[in-house]
Amino acid sequence: MDITAPIRPPENGRRRKRGSFVLRFLGFLFAAGMILFVAGAAVAAFFLWKVSQELPDYEVLAKYEPPVMTRLHANDGRLIAEYSRQRRIYVPITAIPDKVVQAFISAEDKNFYQHGGLDIQGIIRAVVTNLNNIQSGRRMVGASTITQQVAKNFLLTNDVTFERKLKEAILAIRIERAFTKDQILELYLNEIYLASGPTALPLPLSAIGTSPSPS
């Protein structure tokens, strides 16, 4: 027997070294991932806090007064004249036909009575649809709920920015907590733009079927 021949280390020793290296590497990846996650969460939390400090007061919606008509009546009650830039009469939700309400819900926000301001299913569906539309060159679709549209139309601008959409989402959640569904619908239906063409005046639901004002 040649006592000068090198002695090979046991196979199980090599496997233990490889296993310990893999575990250390996985531990490093896990620690790095946790650090990145915590840092990202901190940045997102700070951004949300900063945006929430700049939000308008949504409670003004409870005091909303649209620009309605000024009417002059004679002593006997006859209507003499009407003056307004927009022929509007604020219509309470109880006076709006149920079919009209259901038509708008069906077209704009099918899950209106189920969500709390944001329609998560609608957002996911819009993301998938838009990914397909980008490839086919079709028009992008949105996922704004009726509550989000109330937040945008009454309290925000029409700027197409991520910050504005984030403010809109936060306000929608707060509005849902402060107002009933009927109150939100009432605001929406009395303010929504129903005219056609860029030169037309805003025509709310309350103006449909009214006669022209005297010249």
TrEMBL record:
One MF term in the entry's GO annotations: peptidoglycan glycosyltransferase activity
Domain Glycosyl transferase family residue range list: 77-197
Any one GO biological process: cell wall organization
Pfam families: Transgly (PF00912)
Localization in the cell: Membrane
Ranges in coiled-coil conformation: none
GO cellular component: membrane; outer membrane-bounded periplasmic space
InterPro entries according to UniProt: Glyco_trans_51, Glycosyltr_51/Transpeptidase, Lysozyme-like_dom_sf, PBP_transglycosylase
Pathway linked to the protein: Cell wall biogenesis; peptidoglycan biosynthesis
SUPFAM superfamilies membership: Lysozyme-like
Keywords, ordered alphabetically: Cell shape, Cell wall biogenesis/degradation, Membrane, Peptidoglycan synthesis, Transferase, Transmembrane, Transmembrane helix
Transmembrane segments: 21-49
Source organism, top-level taxon: Bacteria
Predominant place of localization: membrane
The name this protein goes by in its record: Penicillin-binding protein 1A
